[in-house]
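Homework help board

Subject: predicted structure for assignment chain

Our instructor gave us this sequence and asked us to write out the predicted structure in token form, then describe one feature. I got the tokens but I'm not sure how to describe them. Can anyone check?
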Amino acid sequence: MSLWPRLAALALAMLAGLAAVLLWAGAAREEAIAARARALMLGDQQALWSAVAAREQDRLARALDLLTDDGGVAAARAAGDARALARAVTGALADVPMVTVHDAGGEVLTRGDAPQTVMLDPYTVADVAQGGSRAGLWATGPGTFAFVTARSIPVPDGPPLVVVAASDAMPALVGMASRLSATRVLVSDLRGRGAAGGGPVAGPLAIRAPAAMQDAAGLWLSTPLHGPDGGVVGRLATMRSLPPLAAPPAWLPLLALACLSGLFLLLSARLLHPLRHALAVLGGGAGRGPEERALQAAIETAARDARRLDEIALQARRRQQRQERLIRAEIGKLAQALDAEARDEMLRLLDAGGTAAPDELAMLATVLARLSGRITAQHRQLGELVEDLRAAAETRARLAGLEQELAIARDVQLAMVPRDFPAIAGHEVAGRMIPAKEVGGDFFDFFALDDDRFALMVGDVSGKGVPAALFMAISRTLLRATARHEPDPARCVARVNDLLAEENGQMLFVTLFFAIYDRPGGRLAYVNAGHNPPLLCRAGGQVVPLPLTGDMALAVVEGEPFTAAEIALAPGDLLLAYTDGVTEATDPQQTLFGEARLRAAVEAAQSGGPDALVAALVQVLEGFAAGSEQADDITLLALRRGG
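My token output:
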């Protein structure tokens, strides 16, 4: 190819590059403008949602503020009855869409009439009970949310209650759709499941962070949503319709390129005219002079040198290609040590380069830099995994130690419960305790005071686990020690109550049925301190509960007096004492076993004696539960006077 066509091709290439640079600059400027617009819309959305959430939570807070002026709430608080106070709070908040009242342990005491309620987890309830109040968004179901304001309510001489006022977040979403001119507004949880405020949700929301994402349907803007504890519980996303951008005419870049090309060719023809003349002279033939022949020789020498340089460059290029292939192979070997995702990425980059690329070394350097970063990151992840495994092993070892200690504690606790009862002529005694956890708070005992008098007790400590088990052991020990020196059951229980209430930092309490049985006359003097009334099975088959003595539980108030009552057991009569774990056992549908089922089961099995009655009741409870988890300790103690 002659010089002139080469120069023309070079000119066209330069003009094409210039046009590409201009087009890229225009596109970059347009993208910068679009990014600024998205940032402004995202800021408007975040500000509007914060205002909507603040307004709704302020409305709920004002409703909770009115509780201080409610007469029913004030009366229930003065009475010190936590459940009555919970009912009064629920009634006072009848205008609030969703209301739930928890005790300090997280148990739900009352709920509002709404079909859907917000129930906080025990950890959040405990934080509110200690800290005063919380507000935020709470997930009420898969992809559904509510505005929540939780506040603690003090209870005289007891742990505080936690009232949760909530309202559905969907009306706020619908209002935001019109105010933001959005075609769709939805809230999604952290798994991407959403509740729409402008149309159905086609699938999990892909936007996981405060960001903007544009697809064929429009522009999605995402804002994080915070719960009462300050953590992210979901995301608010809106979709905006974007007007189509007017595309420039397709012929405009071509026209500009043609004009520039023509101008460049005219200037080139003017400036290169002397060179064209010299070349014409050189190619004119044999009639050239000495100067022309010298010029011709110099040009031929330059051509030979250029060809030699081309050969040297070709050899250098081949050596470079061999080195590049070697480097590529070594990088491929290193990539095999990465995880599957990183390995596939490195191999794709290597395949995309190709040995014929002019910037192969630069591409290999880029791949090597990425490979180094991946290896460093993988090494760091392996180090973190090793640390996690070490921590998990230590945690597992500690857990195994705790489980072993709990097993020992369970054996010690069960060893404290009598298995062999004192032999009483003409009488039968049977008892059994089934803890709900490794250790429990129930206890029972039956022991001799002298040849004719015997003490029996059944108790239930508030709470579960290790604290309840320790308090149970202390209560049982004090009762056994005091009963041997105090013949009156009322004074015996009063002395133990004073000892327990004197140092009760955990605010635990014990419901107790304590009795002293006189064998010759069959008289039973007893105290019922807030416990379930035992069942008296008469020899004729009638089952009735023992009358209550009206006493409160132990360890609540120091110096509290207690009252004793007395009955006589006729020959053949049977007394069954139990804890509330029997009547509050539940089936898979959360239905309580109840006192009616207990009486029916006792009437059906009382004729077989205490051992048969206890075994039958345990079997009936297991059948009723049908595999449901045991919620509370189960304790049974039966005494029968012979005929």
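Reply (TA_rk): Your tokens look well-formed. For the description, you could write something like this. Residues 115 and 206 are 31 Å apart (CA to CA). That's the kind of observation they're looking for.
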